[in-house]
Amino acid sequence: MRIGAVAALVATAGVVPLAPGAGAATYTYSGSGYDASYPQGDFSPPSGMSFAIIGVTHGRPFTTNQYAAKQWKNAGTPSKSLYFNTGYALAYAKSDTANCKISSAGYTPTGASGHTLSALQAAWAIGCSEADYAVSNQPATPAMWWADVETGNSWSTNTALNQATITGMVEELTTTPTIPVGIYSTPSMWASITGTDFVVSGVSGDWQAGMTSCPSAGFTQTGSGIKAPVLIVQNGTATSGKTTYDTDLGCG
Asked: Residue 179 sits in which domain range?
């Protein structure tokens, strides 16, 4: 997971209340950590890290990082979390789980009906199924789940469909209430994908790329005027042997 050459991004102006999503579990990261996925292969991770975040997908939704189990085992840190790639495309519907197809009927955005409602429910089912697929490939139970939301993956120009997809994945992951759920992105990418005024409850915090220090406000809105706290920033890269990996800083 690397948003290449991302310049330091300034948090949205103004003072915004910070709080986890309603009913969201909480988890705190501190010190230095790293994240790794399929590009790092079976590498030897750095020592002395406070946390590690391992990707279970292979760059796109419904794919598998074949190294995830070994990377999880090799991490050796007291805190280990997982992340997965997300996106929206009609083709992803072929991977819908039976559970998510059924549950999508409960997604009824205000004012949506007919074909519009059907399309939004189908998008919700895709997001829900992406979460199910990630969990089915987890090497172990993580301290926290992270959804990787970036423009490098497929998304619709219709932000309502993207919002439905993200809502589906968050709602599915939070059916296990003891495991917090967060979003990895940047403010500009998040706005491009979701539009404005998108509220997604249940998110415990943000993981922001392209930052060297922790901003005061996150990009995910978990309630009216309420932003999720930034729990981690992805602040650079380092090498272990011949392998390059991403470095992260906990904001706890």
From this structure: 32-250
* Domain presence at residue 46: yes
Q: Are strands 32-36 and 51-55 parallel, antiparallel or unpaired?
A: parallel
Number of domains present in the structure of the chain: 1
Residues 153-196: tens digit of each pLDDT? 999 999 999 999 999 999 999 998 899 999 999 999 999 999 98
pLDDT band at 17 (very low <50, low <70, confident <90, very high): very low
For residue 2, tell me if it sits in a domain: no
The position carrying tokens 């939704």 is 61
**What percent of the chain stands above pLDDT 90?**
83
Q: What is the pLDDT of residues 59-103, one digit of tens each?
A: 999 999 999 999 999 998 889 999 999 999 999 999 999 999 999
Angle between helices 114-136 and 159-173 (to 10 degrees): 40
Q: CA 126 to CA 172: how far, in whole Å?
A: 11
- Residue 9 within a domain: no
Q: Where are the alpha helices (DSSP H) in the chain?
A: 68-75, 98-103, 114-136, 159-173, 187-194
Q: Which residues contact 199 (CB under 8 A, 6 or more apart)?
A: 221, 222, 223, 224
Mean pLDDT of the chain: 91
* 173 domain-assigned: yes
Residue type, 7: A
